[in-house]
Amino acid sequence: MAEIFERTGKVALGSRLRLMTSQLTDDASQLYRQYSMDGFSPKWFPVFFLLSKDGEKTITAIANEIGHSQPSVTKIIKEMAKAGLVKDNLKSKDKRRNIVGLTDKGTSLTEKIRIQCNDIEMAIDGIIAEATHNLWEAVAEWEFLLEQKSLLKRVLEQKKVRESKHVKLVEYQSHYQPIFKSLNEEWISTYFELEETDHKALDNPEEYIIQKGGKILVALYHGEPVGVCALIKMEDAQYDYEMAKMAVSPTAQGKNIGWLLGQAIISSAKEMGASKIYLESNTILKAAINLYHKLGFQKIVGHPTPYKRCNIQMELVLNKKD
């Protein structure tokens, strides 16, 4: 069986751990028989351990401590009750709380469990001494790291990195006007209504943006235009440029394109001598707001806007003016 994991590599980590778990569970079942506890299921152990150490508990408390769902614990309790090891619905001041405790039969097993646990501890210590790596410590470390960031999130981050290598940013040319317009119209019409200022910029981007000293970048994925972002020159005492008209095709989202466009537009603003960049948006666009924060923008208030849909304004300080 080890051969298949050598061939698959790390991608079969879950399968390999499940196989090891299955082997250990089978051994545990046999061990209970060796210690005269026929019929004791390994999956009962966490519940039995808590009740033997702490005494009576509610199903909710047990579920919270062992990290299981309440239905899962309820099922285990029913199985243990059928085996005569626990009893539930014990007397409680709060009749809504289902209190669970060990029966006399259950209590009589605690000494056998204690002896078995001591032998298991010694056996595992022996494996740790023989092994190059301490699996127990490694599992604890992996649990901590996966709590900080799940495997799912880590894999999706790698997917973004890989796919972003196929993204190329190019300067706007007139033949990109239809895609510049359609990408922006798509997201605006999904959440809001197109306004007069939108039509001016989308219908005539060269006149409205580029000829006035601005810039537009287009993101190509495998050669196809899938994202756009503009840097609009502002006649404003506080701000040099506005970052605007960022749009990414729904078919190309999740490939880091918004981040790449934002970084490139900010770099362009720096090259053009900007001290501050302004943008405006709407808080309904949570992914966009998170991206702006990630790019370094901070919320401001009070700047005049021509857009009805704007309910948040942000700025990015590049260089402080003297």
CATH architecture of the largest domain: 3-Layer(aba) Sandwich
How many domains, as an integer?
A: 2
**What's the helix count?**
14
Principal-axes geometry comes out as: elongated
The CA-CA distance between the termini, in Å, is 70 Å
Using only C-alpha atoms, the radius of gyration works out to: 31 Å
CATH class of the largest domain: Alpha Beta
CATH superfamily of the largest domain: Gcn5-related N-acetyltransferase (GNAT)
Summary tags:
322 residues, alpha+beta, Arc Repressor Mutant, subunit A, Aminopeptidase, 2 domains, three-stranded antiparallel sheet, 14 helices, elongated
Describe the fold and architecture.
- The chain is elongated and about 90 Å long.
- The chain has helices spanning 2-8, 13-34, 45-54, 59-66, 70-82, 104-108, 110-130, 135-148, 151-164, 177-191, 196-203, 205-210, 257-271, 286-295, and strands at residues 57-58, 86-90, 99-102, 167-171, 215-221, 224-233, 241-248, 276-281, 298-300, 312-317.
- It has 2 domains: 2-154, Arc Repressor Mutant, subunit A (Orthogonal Bundle), CATH 1.10.10; 162-317, 3-Layer(aba) Sandwich (Aminopeptidase).
- It is an alpha+beta fold.
- 22% of the residues are buried.
- The N and C termini lie far apart (70 Å).
- The mean pLDDT is 91.
- The chain has 14 helices and 10 strands.
- Strands 4-5-6-7-8-10-9 form a 7-stranded mixed β-sheet. The chain has a 3-stranded antiparallel β-sheet with strand order 1-3-2.
- The longest helix has 22 residues, at 13-34.
